[in-house]
Amino acid sequence: MFFRVAWLVMRKDLTVEVRSREILYTTAFFAVACVLVFSFALVKEGRPLEDAAAGILWIAVAFAGTLALGRTFERERHSETLRALMLAPSPRAAIYVGKLLGIVLLLLVVEAVLVPLIGLLFNVPILARPLLLTGLLAAGTVGFAAVGTLFAAMLVRARSRDVLLPVLLYPITIPVVIGGVRGTAALFELPPSGEVAGMWMALLLFFDVVFVTLSLWTFEPLMTE
Amino acid sequence: MKVDFEEVAVRELSRHYGRRRALWRVSLTCRAGEVLGLLGPNGAGKSTLLAILATLLAPSAGEVRYGDIGLRDAGPALRARLGFLSHDLHLYPELTARENLRFFARLYGLDRVAERVGEALAHAGLSERGDDLVSGFSRGMRQRLALERALLHEPRLLLLDEPFTGLDDASVGALVARLRALREAGRIVVVVTHDLDVAEALLDRLAVLKDGRLVALEDASGRIREHYRASIVSRTP
Amino acid sequence: MKRSYPFLVLAAVVLFAAAPILVDRAPYESTMGLVQKIFYYHVPSAMVMFLSALVCGVASALYLFRRNAAADRWASAAAELTVVFGLIVLVTGPLWARKAWGVWWQWDARLTSTLLMWMIFAAYLLVRRFGGPGAEKLAAAMAVFGMANVPFVYVSVNIWRTIHPTTRVVPTLAPGMRGVFWFAVLAFMVLFALLLALRARLEARRAEVEELYLMVEED
């Protein structure tokens, strides 16, 4: 029952998104714009600062993710459909999981665009350890999205919700950024350090488990007024 | 584990936001086969009361009982017997009418989805527009579709927040007829409305709220306008 | 005022009066001299800050899961104190670092973690203030998540820092200093307890006034 509902919600989100592709295109473009802005800021005489590539990748993901979260829940707010979802006789945490999966998928697609771009602009070996890189990105994205989905959902009815989301989200997800950037930087070195990256990925996975669990517990008490 | 009830009892229900009283000690009962109207000026607390009945909002004090079940024990089983329609209609404009209905039917775990969706579309008079996006629908069409969505799971208690706003006369008539049919079928219908004409045509009983308090609770008996004006005027300080 | 309060106030006053005398009489540290004495304020403030953060986290969890309104008041009071004492830590830290080692900020693991925790609780206060109705629950979630984050912040910032060499020398306490140090800790803890109790009580009174307003308006 739980997973059926989560799957339904996710499929509904994907259907809506595939029709207009609005969030996907704008988020992806925004992420690319971020990369460019930061590149101009951090590249001197054609040489980037050390580990700039990894840093810029994760910053772009964090910023674009915040935007995507805001837009996704803005859609639900528009017709108060979140209320209708809460009214359904299904476990409410399943709604959270459905929304989370949708966001993670969207961000992974954006990352699929960003990683080659970063590889191109900074000449980093993105294909040296592809599985580890994917795992790192996935683990970090899930962690970021887990906290982000919960906060964005609970901010739907709040004032100043646009600015409050980053204010709340960024301090909590700093470990994700640290882990993601250091792990990715380790993979972009020559030779790539799989051990270091693996260690950071383990930390990220642990973060994911803790915060998804915490979010599942707190979703219902938070969403009932 | 199916839940059902014949009566909804509201006892001393209060809800406040800081110092602002949205509801204060409201008590009333509604029974199966009855249409209860909630009337009152803006800000009287009608939407708040409806939201509490729909388990979307927690009260600050007081109790609601759905038959034997209290609001505090409300869970998925109770929600399966509630239908709620607010001003915002809760429809996804990016999906077609059929997809909207199908999504909610599956969300509620209903069987015979295709059949029910077909019936709902027919009731709403939208059978030919079933595969059109809701974003292209007029207000009236969306209203009809939203009502059918709220009725898909055959709820015992139907809560409608100003369903007649923005409808033309023909749609109003159709909606009144539909609600009358539901009443005959033994459902409990609670309607918030501003429209006194509709109230006269439809309601069995009415409750008048003013400043969060219940100032009148009477049988309709065709004298709604007098009841309403009297209760609003008499309590003005 | 409750009977215990005059006692607490007296105890706090006495402790704070004595502290400067003791701090003044404590032996000077060999390399840093007078500057090192800021340590008697910096470290106890840090301990109070983390204790306050813990209180806020626990109270917030109680509020979220048990809907205990009193817990929310304690959480709000504790959050304010976390931000205040955190500010003391974050100001005294760089002041000390600048005089002792020549740089304001070194991305030292502990100070960075403190900054992060401070931001989380500053965000708590922002949400409470600007979040509109129902903001207390959002803030409570923030506090709970912040608390759950502590081990992750600690581990990740530590590993992040050890990859870069650090020039900071951690002072070991000479015997003459130990007594003064623990006295300072005690003084700060008493101050914390007093401020927390007073602040929570203020909120409780405020809630009572709101209730009275509600009842008065009934005709």
How would you describe this structure to a colleague?
The complex is a heterotrimer of chains A (225), B (237) and C (219). Chain A has 225 residues and is an all-alpha fold. Chain A has nine helices and two strands; from the N terminus they run ααββααααααα. Chain A has one domain. A two-stranded antiparallel ribbon of chain A has the order 1-2. Chain B is α/β, with parallel strands linked by helices. In chain B, helix 6 links the parallel strand 7 and strand 8. In chain B, helix 3 packs across helix 4. The longest helix of chain B has 16 residues. Chain C has 219 residues and is mostly helical. The chains are: A mainly alpha (225), B alpha/beta (237), C mainly alpha (219). Chains in contact: A-B, A-C, B-C. At the A-C interface, helix 6, helix 7, helix 8 and helix 9 of A face helix 4 and helix 5 of C.
The CATH topology of the largest domain in chain B is what? Rossmann fold
**General shape of chain C:** flat
From the alpha carbons, calculate the radius of gyration of chain B and give it in angstroms: 18 Å
Approximate shape of chain B: globular
Which series of helices and strands of chain C comes N to C?
A: HHHHHH
Order of helices and strands of chain B: EEEHEEHEHHHEHEHEEH
Largest interface: A-C, 31 and 31 residues
Query: Total domains of chain B, how many?
Result: 2
Query: Unreliable stretches of chain B, pLDDT < 50, 5 or more residues?
Result: none
Mean pLDDT of chain B: 86
Q: Structural class of the helix and strand makeup of chain B?
A: alpha/beta
Q: Helix tally of chain B?
A: 8
Give the gist of this structure:
The complex is a heterotrimer of chains A (225), B (237) and C (219). Chain B is of the alpha/beta class and 237 residues long. Chain B has helices spanning 46-53, 76-79, 97-107, 113-124, 139-151, 169-184, 196-202, 224-234, and strands at 7-17, 20-31, 34-39, 61-66, 69-70, 82-85, 157-161, 188-192, 205-210, 213-219.
